[in-house]
Amino acid sequence: MWAAAAHVTPESTQQAVGYPSLFLLVVIGALVPVVPTGALVSSAAVVAFHQTSPFSLLIVFGVAALAAFIGDMGLYWLGRRGMRSKNGSRWLAAIRDRAPEERLRQAQEKLDDHGVMVLVLSRLVPAGRIPVMLACLMAKMPLRRFARGNAPACLAWAVTYQLIGILGGSLFREPWQGVAVAVGLTVLISVAPTVWRRLRHSAS
Fold first, then answer.
1. Residues whose CB falls within 8 Å of the CB of residue 159, separated by 6 or more in sequence, listed in order
2. Residue 27 and residue 72: Cα distance in Å, rounded?
3. What is the rounded distance in angstroms from the CA atom of residue 145 to the CA atom of residue 111?
4. How far apart, in whole angstroms, are the C-alpha atoms of residue 30 and residue 21?
5. For a Cys staple, 123 with which of 13, 101, 157, 204, CB 3.0–4.6 Å?
6. Averaged over 17-28, what is the pLDDT?
């Protein structure tokens, strides 16, 4: 018993706690679109990059992609229930509140032109996921068809933010330094489109 306990390393404990936490936080972030899930994945990738296990990065990728998929499907299912309800739902209202009319119109046009593949791009563009999801809801897209487009979107999203984390982890010896860089990059990516739109609006 004591011999087994001696083989429980801090890294093993960190993995046992970290992977379930990452899964839960990404699911919550997908359901409540205010949690910076990209920064979470990048930070987890930095930590995994500095671990000795060769499978750490692969596990982070799988956990993040699966959690994003489950969260998206849950939010879409709740949105469909809201669309069928006479009084709507707070989830549908939350989706609508985060989808400006102009972004929604653009999402509907792209959905008409490219079908469910627009979901892949929407996952990679900051603040692009919710307008496209709402466009799919308004088009009454079946849950199964949405899932077919959302699966590759979540995979591409997980790869992108994991690469950001790997970049941050490879630049510094200490994991916390890489985490700081990864979080900074993801925040910069997320706010850049909003700042650019405001600058264009003020200039015009």
1. 61
2. 8
3. 13
4. 14
5. 157
6. 88
- Which are the contacts of 46, defined by CB distance < 8 A and separation ≥ 6? 165, 166, 168, 169, 175, 178, 179, 182
Query: Apex CA 39: angle with CA 50 and CA 153, to 5°?
Result: 105
Secondary structure E strands in 35-191: none
Q: With beta carbons less than 8 A apart as the criterion, state whether 106 and 131 touch.
A: yes
The pair of three-digit structure tokens given for residue 188, joined into one six-digit string: 């910069």
Instruction: Give dist(CA 154, CA 72) in Å, integer.
Output: 9
Angle at which helix 143-171 crosses helix 37-49, to 10 degrees, equals: 50
Q: Which tokens belong to 7?
A: 């083989």
Please check the confidence at residue 203 and state whether its pLDDT lies above 80.
Answer: no
Radius of gyration of the chain (CA): 19
Name the token pair of 201. 């609006």
Q: What pLDDT digit, counting tens, does each position of 39-53 carry?
A: 888 888 888 887 767
